[in-house]
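Let's sit down with a protein and look at its sequence and fold side by side. Once you have written the record down, we can walk along the chain together.
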Amino acid sequence: MRAHVLQHAPFEGLGSIERWLTQRRASVTTTRLFEPLAQFPDVTSFDLLVVLGGPMSVNDEASLPWLAPEKSFIAHAVHSQKRVLGICLGAQLLASALGASVRPGTHREIGWFEIRAERQPPAMFQLPEVASVFHWHGQTFDLPTGAQHLAESAGCKNQAFQIGSRVLGLQFHLEMTPRTIEAMIASCGSELDEPGLYVQSAASLRRASPERYAQAQRLLDGVLDQLTSGCV
């Protein structure tokens, strides 16, 4: 399997996705959008595209001129029948690349909160009916044309969507580890000082149990296994 990663900030990397890719002996390449002269590969060079999170907005094209070509690249990957996983900002970029609106949400979500999945036919991605997952976002998106809504939370309606059998957008993070959460706190911790109904403290983020991370890892593994079914 050949995977390509779009990374938007040094402190938001693959997390536990790296473990999954290593176990499957995947070759991995990365476009680091925060570096000068970042280049996008030819879509024929990869099977799976992973679009990671980041602190910016998909609407920041005036200050971040790489956003417009990135959206075009993501849309090209989708239309080329590549397997695509968008995470947090990545899900918003995926939605925007396919013509949907992205805007500030009613609530910011930062911390461990439940999502609730809709019942789906067997061919769709199967998320647990209820799962506690990690969130760090203040924006939300409309569903792109042809997308199937998969899950919601108390603070955000559109938490996951699917297009066909090869494209998945997740507003939440399944890839987080204690180390990646520490990196998020170090880089974006000021956001925790602004009170909100769905904003937890740094201490609460750090109290997550090993089992909570293990549950997220199992869910991530299942999602990636289903998304890449048939990949060599």
Notes: The chain has a mean pLDDT of 95. The first strand starts at residue 2 and ends at 7.
